[in-house]
# Entry
Amino acid sequence: MATSSLLLLLADGRFPAGAHAHSGGLEAAVAAGRVTDLATLEAFLAGRLATAGLVGAAFAAAAHRAVTPAGSAVRGSTLALLDAELDARTAAPALRTVSRRQGRALLRAGGAIWPEASFDDLPSTPGGAHQPLVLGLLCAAAGLSRAETATVAVHWTVTGAASAAVRLLGLDPYQVQALLVGLASRCDGTAAEAARAADEPPERLPAAAAPLADIHAEAHATWEVRLFAS
# Structure
């Protein structure tokens, strides 16, 4: 399968890693009245790109770099540092749990699709490694570049929440897709920035934060009835 086809496969929302069960914080934002229509959805997605999107893509690209020949000499220790640094950047316990849960699901999918690939260098942290690190290794196993890895990570950041908006707000799916097209250049810019940042040591990777998203995540985790897991 050509690299371009593998990129599309991993970016597809139907990839069996459980992403469809998560709204990327949108469900809590809708309940709080902060996202109500296309305009506020666009602002929400732009905010995710600048924070969770940039951080997640940078860590995915850094994990990819760690398991390429140039970084193979210190891959295990680097991945452990990346996991610790990403944990420190994820202030909400609920979001740390979600990230590790999604990492386990992604690892299960990757192991089934690429059984010859080794994921042994992932840190043996309780709960599993963070999702961006698993994504970086998975993209490396698929033969994708660092830039393509960052692109997949950024794509997941916005498309999952956008899809959830159709279900939560009853928005016109055609208009939501048009909104995503309008954000495409911003997504490309974020992915490029993340790929460049991956050259930095783990402690100097992006640390953009969204405190309100952290608060929403903690509140969402207490709901007895909810449509999405996060």
Remarks:
- The chain has a mean pLDDT of 91.
